[in-house]
Design a protein that fits this description.
single chain; 228 residues; alpha/beta; seven-stranded mixed sheet; 7 strands; 43% helix; disordered N terminus
């Protein structure tokens, strides 16, 4: 009887965990006159990945998230991760997080793709600073990484975690924000926002982060669809 009860309990827990990892949604936001890159020809610089609100090793999480994201771009992706120590010394270590969160706010609340116009985000000063900082980062990357091309597109990815309580344990709701920024025009071309829930187990989160980058790049490269 006890063995049967344990098996039943294990099955229920398994079903809950599977259910948590399966739920969520995706929203694609594309500027009406977007100048999207050719993902098989254009070089795209990729900001260091960032995570927030997740239990576990932050460095391992960022590495897992960025690894999958950069790998999905193949030879067309140029990672700026080597610059992270320099960015931290310059006081710009959180730029990936700030850029992604700024993109999320712009498209979700004000339906704009111009950092300069979204003055409702932390006052009128935060978003213009992102533009200036990005320009500095691109200039730094060109020199430090000796880039043989003039960067036009910047890709960024960020994962925010929020805790939820379920009767059989904890879960984490993930909000993944991924976007493309055009250095030449100063406009955001496309933003993907995806939400899903996963087990709060650190190993499970790390495994999930390793797959997210590839999934988000695939969504970035999809043909434009009408925004609902």
């Amino acid at each position: 009887m006890k063995k049967t009860l344990k098996l039943a309990m294990a099955l229920v827990i398994f079903m809950v965990v599977v259910g948590l990892t399966g739920c969520g949604g995706v929203k694609q936001h594309i500027r009406t006159d977007a100048d999207l890159p050719n993902f098989t020809k254009d070089k795209i610089v990729i900001m260091p990945a960032s995570t927030w609100g997740l239990p576990g090793d932050k460095l391992a999480q960022s590495a897992a998230l960025l690894g999958g994201f950069v790998a999905a771009f193949g030879k067309q992706g140029v990672s700026l991760q080597p610059l992270q120590p320099v960015l931290e010394k310059m006081g710009m270590g959180s730029m990936s997080w700030r850029m992604a969160r700024g993109m999320y706010h712009m498209v979700s609340f004000h339906k704009t793709y111009d950092f300069k116009k979204d003055v409702g985000y932390h006052g009128s000063s935060e978003l213009p600073k992102i533009i200036d900082a990005t320009a500095k980062i691109i200039s730094l990357a060109s020199k430090q990484l000796k880039l043989k091309f003039k960067p036009k597109y910047v890709a960024v990815i960020n994962v925010d975690g929020y805790g939820n309580w379920y009767s059989f344990g904890y879960s984490k709701k993930l909000r993944i924000t991924c976007g493309l920024y055009n250095v030449k025009t100063g406009l955001v071309e496309k933003v993907i926002i995806k939400t899903k829930s996963v087990s709060s187990n650190e190993a499970a989160i790390l495994a999930e982060l390793a797959t997210i980058g590839g999934d988000m790049k695939a969504l970035l490269a999809e043909a434009p669809k009408a925004e609902k």
